[in-house]
Structure formats: structure tokens, C-alpha cells
Specification:
By secondary structure, the protein is an alpha+beta fold. The chain is 22% helix and 18% strand. The longest helix is centred in the last third of the chain and has 12 residues.
Amino acid sequence: MGKKSKKDRGVETGGADALKHNPFAALGGGLELPSAPAVDTPEADERDATPPFDPLRFDQKVTVRREKKGRGGKTATRVSGLPEAHREALAAEMKKALGCGATVEGEDVILLGNVVDRVADWLAAKGARRISRSQ
């Protein structure tokens, strides 16, 4: 009893003609969906009439400080004094712009790592006039 050669394993390739058979060809035979009539819906007009975006204003002093206490020895940057309406959006923008993790914790935004100078520069570019840095 010797080994069987790879040619004798019983797998039939069928040649080039076997690849031309499509088992799903009969399913698409002549079935077309009718086109829906164009209807002007009032919902589309309501979506277009959204109120304009409230411009970002920094009315109060923004404080940027570095802290380690209560974070298991890890350094974090706390940003206080951001407008409440834009806090979540600013945290998401800071994440992307500064390349670090960010979360909203109460009235503050917490950024992972020591990024005090970078955050202060970014906020100044966004229009914050009164920025207090503390290390």
C-alpha cells in the first residue's frame, strides 16, 4: 500500500467550462423593481431648515492645569471653564487635534498626558482670550 498521488484524489476540476456555470443566474432573470414616483415630502424641508450653529464663545477664563493626584500616578490635563453647550464637541475636537484621549468629567474636560502647552495654544487658536496655565 503506497501513497496515492495527488492526481488520484478524486477532485475534478472540470476545466474552463465548469467556471462559467452560475447557480444564481436564474434568480435575476427579468425581475426589475418598478421605480417609485418622486414625492416632495415635508420632512425633507424640515431637515434643511435646521437652526444655524451657535458660534463658540469663551466668556469666562479657561484654566488648563496638570495633575497626577487620584489617577494612579498617571499624568492628566484638566481644562476648566469651557462653555457648557460646547464641552462635548470641544473634547472630541481636542482628541483629534492633539492626538490624546479626552473625556468630560463634570464641568471639566480631562485629557490624558501632560499636554498643557498644546491645549492652551489650541484654545487660543479657537478664540479663547483668557487662558490660565498651571503646571
